[in-house]
Every structure is written in structure tokens, then in C-alpha cells.
Design goal:
The complex is a heterodimer of chains A (177) and B (102).
Chain A lengths: L1 H5 L1 H22 L3 H21 L3 H25 L15 H21 L14 E2 L2 E2 L2 H11 L2 H22 L3
Antiparallel strand pairs in A: 1-2
Helix pairs in contact in A: 2-3, 3-4
Chain B lengths: L5 H21 L3 H26 L3 H31 L13
Classes of the chains: A mainly alpha (177), B mainly alpha (102).
């Protein structure tokens, strides 16, 4: 019990990291995309928990709302819209999968080598780093909103235009002739 | 002893990225490929949050918001293309998409 209390954050990290990775592998290997979509939801929720452990509370909730709510529903709708009854007869992987997998394994070995040995030093985050607005501790949402609308207003507006363009594009692509 | 450092997050993010990339490169079903792209974008967010914590800087979280917005737009357009492909060929296998104008 003392061990659990002392290392709670680390154990939670390993738990959610394991769930996220296992679910990601399920997403990629499942024959039926419906099972893959449910596994993807598990990955999204685990990543949201990992955000919480890094004091990104606003991002964790946005992750659950946008990914778990919006994008997930979009995927499930489309999976139900298209007819997948011939799924059993189809080959799962493309022709050059072995080569691609080899390249990806090389890449992950390179990443691991770099990231494990990266001399970053201790994290500099202080208890108030993500909740303070002009020296006053208000909350993560306020802090993100303050920075977003003060320093990153133009990118925010561009993002809204981007979303409008994406919406129009999706409507045009999806309409019947 | 059991301490989670930024390196832990970076390794997790690299593994998630690799799984997603493997899905994009090897799978034939377009729905699964789109889901793998979401995995890759999510791994980028993990990286941004980890460095935001490492540097005690909120900018990483702001960038993650933009990544999520881009992911939402990408999913909408990608699934739109998927529906258009299905109307044309009655399948979601990527191998059939060999023409620019059907």
C-alpha cells in the first residue's frame, strides 16, 4: 500500500501507456474496422489520462470531447455507412508490408536510441506553471485561454478558417451528384 | 526510483508513432489507414505535452490544441474521400484507387 501511494503517478503512467500501446496495436491489426474503432477509443482515453498526469487538464478534456466524442462518432458513422460484408475474403496487408515494417522497426530503434539517452535533466514544471494567469492561480483552462487569445490569436483565427474549409470540403466530397 | 521523466513520454510517443506509421504503410483498408493517421497525430500531442511539462511552458499545450483542430479537419475530409471512393468502387480497399478522375 505504501508502495502504491509513493509511486502512484508512475504506476498510472505505466498502466495507461500499456493500454494505449496495446490498443494501438489492436487498431492496426484488427480485420474488422469496428473493433479497431473501439480500440482507438481506448487509446484516446488512455492518452487523455496521460495528459492529466502531465498537468494538461484542459487538453485532457478536449481530447475526450473532440477525439472520443467527435472524431470517434464520425468514424463509427462511416464504418456503418460503407458495406463491409466481403471483409473475410480480402487480404489484410498490402504487397510491400514486410519492407515497410522493416523500415518502421529501424525507425523506432533509432527513436528509442535517441530518446532514451536524451540528456534533458529534471522537469522544470512548478506547481503553478500551468494554472497561473498574471501571477494569480486560476486554473489550466483560464491559463490556456489567456495565452491562446493573447499571443496566438492569429493562428486561432486561421484554425477556424481551416475548419470551415474542411467542413465545406467534406460536404462537397460527400454529396450525391 | 520509479520516476516518470520526459524521456518516458518520448519513448511512448515514438512507439505510438511507429505503430500508427506501420498501420498507414501496411494496411489496405482505408478506414484503418485513417485511424492510424489519428494515432500518429495523437503521438505528436503526447510529445508536445511532455515538453510543455519539461520546460514549464504553456506553449506546448496551445500547439496541441491546434494539432487537435487539424486532426478533426483531416478526419472529416478523409472520411469524405472514403465515402466518395466507396460510391465509385463499392469498396474501401486502397488498391482500387488508381485513377485521378473516375
Amino acid at each position: 500500500m505504501e508502495f502504491l501511494v509513493a509511486h502512484g503517478a508512475a504506476l498510472l503512467f505505466y498502466l495507461f501507456a500499456a493500454i494505449a500501446l496495446a490498443a494501438a496495436v489492436v487498431v492496426v491489426t484488427m480485420r474488422n474496422p469496428m473493433y479497431g474503432a473501439i480500440a482507438l477509443l481506448a487509446t484516446f482515453l488512455s492518452v487523455a489520462a496521460l495528459f492529466l498526469l502531465r498537468h494538461a487538464e484542459f487538453l485532457a478534456v478536449v481530447q475526450i470531447f473532440v477525439y472520443g466524442g467527435g472524431i470517434m462518432v464520425l468514424f463509427l458513422f462511416v464504418i456503418m455507412l460503407v458495406n463491409l460484408h466481403r471483409l473475410r475474403e480480402l487480404r489484410l496487408f498490402g504487397q510491400h508490408s514486410a519492407v515497410a515494417l522493416g523500415v518502421v522497426l529501424l525507425l523506432v530503434a533509432l527513436f528509442a536510441l535517441i530518446f532514451v539517452n536524451l540528456p534533458l535533466g529534471p522537469a522544470q514544471a512548478t506547481p503553478g506553471a500551468f494554472v497561473e494567469v498574471e501571477g494569480e492561480a486560476l486554473g489550466n483552462t483560464q491559463a490556456v485561454g489567456w495565452k491562446l487569445f493573447r499571443e496566438y490569436l492569429l493562428p486561432f483565427e486561421i484554425a477556424s478558417v481551416f475548419l470551415l474549409v474542411a467542413m465545406i470540403g467534406a460536404v462537397v466530397l460527400g454529396r450525391r451528384d | 526510483m520509479l520516476e516518470v521523466t520526459t524521456n518516458h513520454y518520448l519513448v511512448l510517443s515514438a512507439l505510438l508513432f511507429a505503430v500508427g506509421l506501420a498501420g498507414i504503410l501496411t494496411r489496405r483498408n482505408m478506414i484503418t489507414v485513417l485511424m492510424s493517421i489519428e494515432l500518429v497525430l495523437n503521438s505528436v500531442n503526447v510529445n508536445l505535452i511532455a515538453f510543455s511539462y519539461q520546460l514549464a511552458d504553456l506553449t506546448g499545450q496551445i500547439f496541441a490544441v491546434f494539432t487537435i483542430a487539424v486532426a478533426a479537419g483531416e478526419a472529416a475530409v478523409g472520411l469524405g474521400i472514403l465515402v466518395a471512393l466507396y460510391r465509385l468502387h463499392a469498396t474501401t480497399e486502397l488498391d482500387v484507387a488508381t485513377e485521378l478522375k473516375g
